Fold this protein.
Amino acid sequence: MGQEISESDFDEAAFVEFRRRVDDETRLLADWLQDGQLASTQRCFGFEIEGWLVDGNARPAARNQEFLARVDDPMVVPELSRFNFEINSAPLQLGPGAFDRMHDALRRRWEHCQSAAAVLGMRPLLIGILPTVRSGDLSLANMSPLRRYRAINDQIFRLRNGEPIEVDISGVEHLRHRHFDVMLEAATTSLQIHVEVDAGEAARAFNVCKMISAITVGAAANSPFLFERQLWQETRIALFEQAVAVGGSSYSKRVTFGARYARESILECFEANRLRYPVILPDLMDTAPEKLSHLRLHNGTIWRWNRPLIGFDDGGQPHCRIEHRVVAAGPTPSDAIANTVLFLGLFEGLMRSDEALEQLMPFAVARDNFYSAARHGLDADIAWMGREPAALGDLLCRRLVDDAEAGLVAAGVPEPEAAQWLGVIRARAERHQTGADWQADWVARHGRDFAALVDAYGNHQADDRPVHEWSLS
């Protein structure tokens, strides 16, 4: 949703012309891919992380315009709701010191956000779903004042013929809820990891990211509560999928794990965009076809959990990257970097494997793993690369953390740096304490006082100690 649009009222002619431009730009992308114009000789990565603003009563504070003005940082930007914001990282090349530098930059920016919010009587929070958010908070009155957000709401409900959103999530408890706008999406805040890939390896990278998704979503689970009900360990997954649902088949869901792996080329995703997905934002831009502006805007309204992106460097050279969207925000900057390290380590290891990964882990297995991990976190049974299912927490301790470390070392990260950051993941698995586990255990001990839960969570988050070190006091 990051690209602003020039207007929000569209006639049928705009839809027709926009689709024509997407067709033309998709053909241009196909030519570039065939000619090898999206080559990449280095592995760059970065992230976006979404946060909440919380008032003195541990409730959402819809004041991001004041907050952003005080922060005054182009890397800290608005999100869908007035009580959310997003911190962006500068891209870094994977190599010695990269994770420490990225953590230092995030921590400095986070401390600046904390100071700016405190002056306004608020605190920022990194969490997948804020336990104190209520249905009434998720209203158009609290939507950030950007045209693209209002237009997305209008177009989603046009595709739904005005029918309300029906949420039905069965977990530890059961939630049924009816909503009349897209603002449920604002309750789902995440860490989105970007990794640049050569176009020739992009299809394999896309598939590998799907395979890894169960590991990262479960190891980083941080969203057990919604509207005071305990649901999935990563309720954010189910909520986002239902929050902008427009019907259609598994091939045209707007938020989706997908229906299959890529077979030959990453172009398959953009062809699917063109053929299967109705246009939501037909904003006609006065840009050259080589900017791929319409293709990129359309792609930005299809929220695959692993989404291929086309970007341009400072010199105008196009590149391809995969956006891994399954990880929850928080609990701390240190946890966010450790989650990034886990993803990149597994990614690098699998990308270097000479095994037929798609045969070892068929798409249906990767999909089932993903939803099992979102539901059950570290307790999920995961079938990893042809082996018998095992609990995710055990897999991390016995195999996957070591595999991630080997992948990073092969990519040029010094072993001590990789081991230090992956030690956070190992300790989290050994102590069975993700953010979701800590929240659920806190409520089991102290009762269903969700404001007190948010206060305790925020107090622990303030000093950036990883969640596995948090007490329940």
Notes: The CA atoms of residues 95 and 412 lie 5 Å apart. The longest strand covers residues 44-54. The chain has one domain: 12-468. The chain is about 45% helix and 15% strand.
